[in-house]
Specification:
447 residues; mainly alpha; 0% strand
Length: 447
């Protein structure tokens, strides 16, 4: 257990480092590219990635999750069968993108989707051939190499994108950069673990185990797509591409802390709990909650700063074309708090083989977003729709915590205490900001 804790701590450090470096690169690249390219191009690419992400999630068999969770996760027969399925899935995704391009182009009345979707979907085809070494390293919480791969790939991709955009101020810069980054990741993945490789192989028992776990992952990720992307799907029709690009900027900043918890959830918490999933639930809950509080308290302080001063950051970093992102960002950021609470203990449900609770939670979140955004936009236009998006994690939180309570893994008391801390911090900092003459983060909403 002591060894596992050390691995988890080390893995958390590398995950946070990798994520921090990745977001810093993303921010710097974003600031440069928003000065080289028009907002419409970011809105266009947001929709392209939306549909490609949908293809990924609608065909997700949970291959990586299975390798981490399954007791045969280090068996070469199991790994090569998983890799074979992954390759076929990548080919299937690209073929699906060819079929998807025309109806999407017609629905959004945007002819560029006819070539954009199939070309960007080549990233799925390329990643399908990536080595299972990434999953193996995640399984054993050896995350230094994974973090270096992700950061290195992003540096190269961003460098290509910016260089291309300097000479060609078109969407081709974003497309070429994405393809180069995916190819670099493919090559790099085979150098993560020396003297290991993958080849086509089919093991009947491994296939059965992969599909047995994957059927739940397929349903969960398909529902997750609608839950996570419903806002952009609807906004893509209700708003202009320029405003969709502005919303994307606000969401990128608002989502920073949630993305940290998602990374910790997938790369540290889930593998760590999977290794002790056979222990009594009371033991798992005690260990989970003991370490969880070390994450929640810093998150409360960090979210306070994002909510209270994020609008100022937007105004400093971006020009007037993105000014409306300033009032959107604090609303969206505050709304992610329930989801961050869930991200720190929800992985335990997957680790013990109970993915039905997250599946139901995501389905409910999708329904809330669909109805909320349409109703909010109808009565209050864009502000109403943004507030509806901010509230959509509440129903998710209720269902996840019902599942945790049923499985005797609840951390509700911690949630109440840290939420009280967050509310107190927000009250103090917002009061100080107001009396310093800086107003409130959403003042522009009323001007």
């Amino acid at each position: 257990m002591s060894s596992l804790k050390k691995l988890a701590v080390r893995g958390a450090i590398w995950t946070i480092f990798g994520y921090g470096a990745s977001q810093m690169l993303r921010l710097c690249g974003n600031l440069i590219l928003t000065r080289l390219l028009e907002p419409k191009l970011f809105g266009l690419m947001a929709l392209v990635y939306l549909f490609i992400t949908g293809l990924h999630l609608f065909s997700d068999l949970g291959i990586g999750t299975s390798v981490v969770q399954n007791k045969r996760g280090d068996d070469p027969a199991f790994l090569n069968t998983a890799w074979t399925l992954q390759v076929f899935r990548g080919i299937f995704l690209w073929l699906c993108s060819l079929l998807l391009a025309w109806p999407v182009a017609q629905f959004y009345n945007e002819p560029q989707f006819l070539w954009l979707i199939p070309v960007v979907a080549l990233t799925a085809l390329i990643s399908g051939f990536s080595s299972t070494a990434i999953y193996t390293l995640n399984r054993h919480l050896a995350l230094r190499q994974v973090a270096m791969l992700e950061v290195g790939r992003q540096i190269i991709s961003l460098s290509v994108t910016i260089t291309w955009a300097n000479f060609d101020h078109s969407i081709r810069a974003l497309v070429i950069g994405a393809l180069v980054g995916e190819f670099v990741g493919l090559v790099w993945s085979y150098r993560l673990i020396p003297n290991t490789s993958n080849h086509f192989f089919w093991n009947k028992e491994a296939t059965k185990e992969l599909f047995s776990f994957g059927k739940w992952m397929f349903l969960s990720t398909a529902v997750t797509f609608f839950a996570e992307q419903a806002d952009r799907l609807i906004f893509g029709k209700l708003l202009s591409l320029e405003m969709l690009g502005v919303y994307g900027i606000a969401l990128t900043f608002a989502d920073l802390l949630r993305s940290v918890t998602l990374a910790l959830s997938a790369k540290v918490i889930f593998p760590a709990i999977s290794k002790i999933a056979d222990l009594p639930r009371s033991v798992i809950r005690e260990k989970l909650n003991h370490n969880r509080k070390l994450v929640l308290i810093p998150l409360a302080f960090s979210l306070t700063m994002v909510v209270c001063f994020g609008d100022i950051l937007i105004k400093v970093l971006y020009d007037e074309r993105y000014s409306e992102a300033a009032w959107m960002m604090p609303i969206l950021a505050l709304g992610i708090w329930p989801r961050m609470l869930c991200n720190t203990n929800e992985p335990s449900l997957f680790a013990i083989g109970k993915p039905q609770y997250p599946t139901l939670a995501n389905f409910s979140r999708f329904l809330w977003t669909l109805l909320g955004v349409l109703i909010g936009f109808h009565f209050f236009k864009l502000p109403g729709a943004v507030i509806a998006v901010a509230l959509n994690d509440l129903v998710f939180y209720v269902i996840i915590n019902f599942g945790l309570w049923r499985e005797r893994l609840s951390g509700l008391r911690q949630d109440i205490l840290t939420t009280t801390l967050l509310i107190g911090l927000l009250a103090i900092v917002l009061t100080c900001r107001f009396y310093l003459g800086l107003g409130l983060p959403i003042d522009e909403l009323f001007t």
